[in-house]
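input
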Amino acid sequence: MKALILAGGFGTRLRPISCTRPKILFPILNKPLLQWILEGLAKTGVTETILAVNRQTKFYIENSKIPKNGMKIVYLCDPPNKPLGTGGPVKKAEKLLKNEKFMVINGDIFTNLNYSEIVKMHEEKEAVATIALCKVKDPSRFGVAELANDGCIKRFIEKPPPGTAPSNLINAGVYVLSPEILNYIPKGRKVSLEREIFPKLVDKGKFYGYVFDGLWTDIGKAEDYMELNKILLASYGEQQKFRVWKGVKFRKPVVFDEFSVGEGSIIGPYVVLGRNVKVGRNVCIRNSVIFPGVTVADSSIINGAIIGENTIIGKGVTIDEKCVIGDHVVICDNVSLADGVSICPAKEVCKSITEPKWIV
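output
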């Protein structure tokens, strides 16, 4: 079986971190999101994955050296300055997909869904399309489905106004499609599966929903990305093996790669440290994701922040909650950043910032 991963977006809501990497390469517990997806697909028996991307994302993925898990990887690039939506790439890949059922996965979601189960339902129902559905408190941000007792979708509404959704079952961004779906998708233009194609399938009675009760997160915003890491830390962080560091306290859950830390520092709880992070003496880091290559000098405090790759944080710095610091930033000694400060890549900040703002 083949799979197509939709990863052509630009991650504007995840800036400044997404200025220097696509969403699909954001590290989740120090492993890129794409790697998590490929591992799940390989367990389902997928042998070929098509990556529907823009050219910039293709460049980043090719240079990331992510394990292919025995799969063939094919790139399908959107035309320059002409995104194809969620349906256009499927039609563009028609020659690769027309012979058997295939999967389509949104490249900005993380889930522990067992892909084999949705494939099984799709085959049993002889559906044209089967989509994964999960329950959320507020469905207004998503496509919403109303199901019949046999799992057939009676209504599908993309992003209904608050209070009008027919259910709290949302489109989880994982689809199993039969080749017949290709007959419904027009060629050569941007197409939305959710707005244009799925409503047509409702009328045909061959559109089904597979409801699962597991982990599902859309990492479209920084707070969603942080929350996903926190959820997974609660599961995986307790398993992290620690070497003995003199005078250093680790408050689980914590996940880290190779790193160094100075005496008197406190790491955790809910902290991810990337490869080659250097932490000085008397540093306190909690509720934060620290990307690879970051240096944190003595007596600094980081609480509830995302710190981009190869950033340098000086001595006595305080970084408060919801701060997002881009790659290669330099923060000078004794600077304080208030809640909600975002700093674009490669900036130098030598004055404290006392209110939420962007440094561009």
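quick obs: The mean pLDDT is 91.
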